[in-house]
Structure prediction request, 67 residues.
Amino acid sequence: FLYLDLITNELFGTIPPQISSLSKLKYLDLSTNKLFGNIPLEIGHLINLKDLNLYENELNDLIPEEI
Prediction:
């Protein structure tokens, strides 16, 4: 995957740490869903990631240093 667009998909829950297995991902948009909890540290392992959109979710305000 280079671009993963899951905007407004009624996703509910936390972002799974396994997201880091998408190592070639460049753009990840999870905006306007019902995600909550912490942003997983593993997102920092996505070394090719250029754009991350988490707008309009209920995630904690802390952004991990790994990102």
